[in-house]
Design goal:
heterotrimer, A mainly alpha, B alpha+beta, C mainly alpha, B: alpha+beta, 7-stranded mixed β-sheet, two-stranded antiparallel ribbon, 18 helices, disordered N terminus, C: mainly alpha, MetI-like fold, 2 domains, two-stranded antiparallel sheet, 14 helices, 2 strands, disordered C terminus
């Protein structure tokens, strides 16, 4: 009897030790957990990234071998005043795009968080712009902005506010704002959704405690809501900034940079150089010039997040 | 706690459903034959109307069958114009371009100069032996080092589409023959939101360059000289720029929005009856016919207005090219030959509705060309047509200038940022020279 | 503050919320209205000289063309498969990664976490060529799996970051007590951590689904065969040279907006878990 029990327990011990070794050694476990992510990212991101970096130091057309030219692409860019203008446009476009999306997203989330009948329906409606591919949204807005028979001019002229249609995408003072409006329309639900999830996760006790201390709505918002939402704000702004500043679709469809490159942004210029003009090295270099700024931005934003928290 | 267990169950259920779908993807086997299972790959760039496209597909399939190919050994991909650059760049990089596709003059030069295109002189020689021969105007352009890299498949003539009714209303028998007269008429015709001149000024190549050069060349300016060197800066060009500036900012006969138009902007403007004049290939006219547009009868095709240097339209030739990487070059060349056989070709030309003028001049006697009154104007425009780049020819450097809209950028700088016309022309010229120098072409 | 003025302040906030909501819904719906109306118009009303705000002769011909004369049903099926697979796999991989990065201590943890975000710095408009080289290299060109793999590269980093944020707010005592009871790490992840982060999971699902549903650039380059195509790449085929087919295009837009909306409608109940988190803390 004792012998059998002893045999079983020895085997158990061996089995447990092996399995425990695999799953309880933190480093192996971490590696296993991260393995799928690492594999995917290596194939789908790291290799293309490295390729693009090396490409920026070359002179290359599609199908032909590249010629190494060192920093000449970068020098060409930095001495081109059009490039400086485009860089400035990109900053403007990103700052306002992200900023406006943030404000509207937060307002939406707060409004949707309030108890109300039919809230699921409102939430679904507000989600729709994001459910529509950016390509289609841009094409639709192109039509809405049409100088002759677009929805916007139609409404404004019928209401008597305009004599005849305005070229929303060609007037120098309006073009960039028209483009940003589309970016905002298409991208705000991303913020709304994320902020709403964040608001829902704030424990009710914090609000109750504040109310006991005599706080009104504004105070509760300022001292409870905002601080609790900081991590959510950080992630959303960080990711949206990167997505917004690297997307070519909206500008490509609406204006292609017109008028006079006033709406042109870096990713579009990069695409135009690499694909339309066939200068892949230059196109890649244009993209690379934005990277240092985004990287610094990410490091600053995530320093606090990665520093304080974590096991 | 009840809340949590309810949610967990729903998550579990949803997760299982998604799991089933996710893991079954590979087993559903929804995949295409790899590009090289096929013996012949043809990229069809759509031609403005479905009937013409369907005809090409049918002709390609007939050819494949006649060569004993099975259904899946012929691969036809429909690649819209806007997708070609992107798809071709990727395809060339992985070494898998199509076997056959249509090429315009810029493509011919871009891909030909790197050495991607196959010599198809035999096909062209056969075309020359047909009764009446072919229009050989484009052959010098398609030839590189003695090799012909594209078989011409049609002449795309740009015609001025004119709303004759609007000019009549303003008291003119027909559109004035000079730009100055045109502007004067334009002032009378333009009543926003209706504009007289739907000039394409957007940064998407290439309608804008066609429109610009129709003014520039009327005053004697040109992009290149006869030795293919940049020759943009000239009195003629400056005069033309001044005219464009006046038309947009002073006379305001051009819709403000044209700066952000893509290549369909002027089409849409004309089709929706908002402008009295555009310069475009006859795709617009074909659409008016198909849509039974109320403006159809009022529309005439004509040459653009002229100036001191003359009055002419522009035209370019499109080709079929074969890529060197084609695993079955004889098969690929045979497809091109098949498309260009007069009996197949003549049907395509008619279905294309005037989009192309036949490369075999003998086909112009086809009753199709007298079936519509507007075609008389088209033929006249085609007769007067020169290349946009005359007196030079397209080169790789010029191709880059065109594809990055460098000239039009300066036009927009002039119109929007208040640059002096003479400065804009000088800067455009300098940009051209920089590109030519960089690519080692003579300046 | 008296009870009365607290109520007033609350009601004011509610009213402001309602007005804001109203404005936002109008602003969201206007282009959608235009899409719906255009999809029901005949060509002459879309392009004609007098543009109508409401179709005078409504027609469902555009929808008929969409379903009978184009390959739209095939594109729809493919998009569903790709989106569902991507969403499911994103969830798994991101949950594993996020757990590792927040609960397990190992060298390079912080670098790896940041690296996740750096993956977004290169836009798809530039990466598509080397990506094609890789996808073709593993034989996945023109397949749905190839698309899923490419999209995972987009979704997993963001979803990992998202889940990291939520995991970090869950007290570690819960897991420690479970592990003392003999639960393995994976068990802890599945039974304890995930259920408490349902709002995050909902967002992960929306994001992954919508992104793979709407992605255009990679889909147009990696897949050329019609039988494998997804919806966004089918759309440009409605553009024949420089002539648009707005009617069918708008019809396809509306139909293709439905599945993401269904996903959203179904998953949004998971956003309401304020009670649960409170229970944990107590």
């Amino acid at each position: 009897m004792t012998g059998v029990a002893a045999a079983v327990s020895v085997e158990d011990v061996r089995r447990t030790t092996f399995w425990q070794y695999l799953t309880n050694d933190v480093r192996t476990l971490a590696f296993l957990f991260l393995l799928p992510t690492i594999l995917i990212l290596t194939c789908v991101v790291v290799y293309p990234f490295t390729y693009a970096l090396l490409l920026s130091f070359q002179d290359k057309t599609a199908g032909a071998p590249g010629k190494f030219i060192g920093l000449r692409n970068y020098i060409e860019l930095l001495s081109d005043p059009e490039y400086i203008q485009i860089f400035y446009n990109t900053v403007w476009y990103t700052v306002f795009g992200v900023g406006i999306k943030f404000i509207i997203g937060l307002a939406s989330a707060l409004a949707l968080n309030q108890p109300r009948r039919f809230t699921p329906i409102y939430r679904t409606i507000l989600f729709v712009p994001w459910a529509i591919p950016t390509v289609i949204a841009s094409l639709t807005w192109l039509w809405v902005y049409n100088e002759f028979n677009g929805l916007l001019n139609l409404l404004l002229t019928r209401l008597g506010l305009l004599d005849h249609g305005i070229a929303w995408l060609a007037e120098p003072k309006l073009a960039m704002w028209s483009v940003i409006a589309v970016v905002v329309w298409n991208g705000t639900p991303f913020y709304t959704m994320h902020f709403l999830a964040g608001l829902q996760a704030i424990p009710k006790e914090l609000y109750e405690a504040a109310e006991i201390d005599g706080a009104g709505e504004l105070n509760k918002f300022w001292h409870v809501t905002i601080p609790s939402m900081k991590p959510v704000f950080t992630i959303t702004v960080m990711l949206s900034t990167v997505f917004t500043s690297t997307s070519i679709v909206v500008v490509n469809i609406l204006t292609n940079g017109a008028p006079a490159n006033l709406t042109q942004i870096l990713p579009n210029e990069s695409y135009s150089a690499a694909i339309s003009a066939g200068r892949m090295g230059l196109g890649s270099a244009i993209n690379m010039t934005l990277l240092p700024f985004l990287v610094v931005f990410i490091i600053i934003l995530t320093r606090r997040m990665l520093g304080n928290k974590g096991a | 706690m009840t809340h949590v267990s309810y949610s967990r169950r729903s998550v579990g259920k949803a997760g299982l459903a998604a799991a089933a779908a996710g893991l079954s993807v590979p087993f559903l086997n929804i995949r295409a034959a790899s590009a090289r299972d096929a013996k012949l790959v043809f990229w069809l760039q759509p031609n403005f109307n479905k009937v013409a496209d369907d005809l090409l597909v049918a002709q390609a399939k007939d050819y494949a069958r006649s060569k004993g190919l099975k259904d899946n050994e012929l691969q036809i991909e429909v690649v819209p114009g806007g997708e070609v650059s992107k798809r071709m760049a990727a395809a060339l990089e992985i070494g898998a371009p199509p076997d056959v596709t249509r090429t315009n003059e810029e493509d011919l030069v871009k891909w030909g100069s790197i050495g991607h295109l196959l010599d198809i002189t035999p096909v062209v020689n056969e075309m020359k032996t047909r009764p009446g021969g072919i229009n050989e105007g484009s052959l010098p352009l398609a030839t590189r080092n003695g090799q012909i890299l594209g078989a011409p498949m049609g002449i795309a003539a740009n015609a001025a589409h004119v709303r004759a009714d609007k000019f009549k209303e303003a008291g003119y028998d027909s559109m004035p023959a000079t730009w100055e007269g045109f502007i004067e008429a334009g002032r009378k015709i333009t009543k926003p939101p209706f504009y007289s001149f739907g000039m394409a000024l957007g940064l998407v190549p290439s309608d804008s360059l066609v429109d610009l050069m129709s003014v520039v060349s009327a005053y004697g300016g040109s992009l290149l000289d006869a030795q293919n060197r940049p020759a943009f800066e000239s009195d003629g060009t400056i005069a033309a720029f001044k005219l464009v500036e006046a038309m947009y900012n002073k006379d305001k006969i051009i819709p403000r929005g044209s700066l952000s138009w893509d290549n369909s902007g002027n089409n849409k403007a004309f089709q929706s009856g908002q402008v009295a004049y555009i310069m475009n290939p006859t795709s617009v006219y074909s659409s008016l016919v198909t849509d039974k547009s109320p403006f159809l009868d009022a529309t005439v095709l004509d040459r653009p207005p002229g100036g001191p240097a003359g009055r002419f339209s522009t035209a370019s030739t499109d080709h079929y090219s074969v890529f060197k990487k084609a695993p079955n070059p004889e098969l690929a060349m045979g497809l091109v030959q098949h498309f260009l056989k007069p009996e197949n070709y003549s049907r395509f030309i008619v279905e294309a509705g005037g989009r192309y003028l036949p490369i075999y001049p003998s086909l112009l006697s086809d009753p199709f060309w007298t079936s519509k009154p507007a075609f008389a104007g088209l033929l006249e425009a085609a007769r007067s047509a020169r290349s946009t780049y005359a007196p030079g020819k397209i080169t790789p450097a010029l191709s880059e200038v065109v594809n990055r809209s460098l000239i039009i950028s300066e036009v927009q700088n002039m119109l929007v940022k208040g640059k002096e016309p003479a400065r804009a022309v000088a800067d455009a010229h300098k940009t051209m020279v920089d590109v030519f120098k960089r690519l080692g072409e003579p300046t | 503050m008296s009870v009365g003025s607290k109520d007033r302040s609350k009601r004011l906030a509610h009213h402001i919320g309602s007005i804001t909501l109203f404005i936002l819904i109008v602003w969201t719906l206007a282009p959608l209205y235009w899409m719906v109306v255009t999809s029901l118009k005949t060509n002459s009303e879309i392009y004609g000289e007098t543009i109508t705000l409401w179709p005078l002769k409504p027609t469902i011909d555009n929808y008929r063309i969409l379903f009978q004369e184009t390959n739209f049903p095939i594109y729809f099926r493919n998009s569903v498969i790709v989106a569902v697979a991507t969403t499911f796999l994103s969830l798994i991989f991101a949950a594993l990664a996020a757990y590792a990065l927040t609960r397990l201590v190992f060298p390079g943890r912080r670098f790896f976490a940041r690296a996740l975000v750096y993956t977004y710095l290169m836009p798809s408009s530039l990466l598509f060529i080397p990506l094609l080289v890789i996808i073709r290299g593993v034989g996945l060109q023109n397949t749905l799996e190839g698309l899923v793999l490419s999209y995972l590269g987009f979704t997993v980093p963001f979803c990992s970051w998202l889940l990291m944020g939520y995991f970090m707010s869950i007290p570690i005592e819960l897991e420690e007590s479970a592990m003392i009871d003999g639960c393995s790490r994976i068990g802890v992840l599945i039974r304890i951590v995930l259920p408490l982060t349902l709002p995050a999971l909902a967002v992960v699902a929306f994001f992954s689904f919508t992104l793979s549903w709407n992605e255009f650039i990679y889909a147009s380059v990696l897949v050329s065969d019609v039988s494998v195509r997804t919806i966004p790449t089918g759309i440009p085929n409605f553009v024949v040279q420089d002539v648009f087919f707005w009617g069918p295009m708008m019809a396809s837009t509306l139909i293709s907006a439905i599945p993401p909306l269904i996903v959203y409608f179904v998953f949004q109940r998971f956003l309401i878990t304020g009670l649960t988190v409170g229970a944990v803390k107590g």
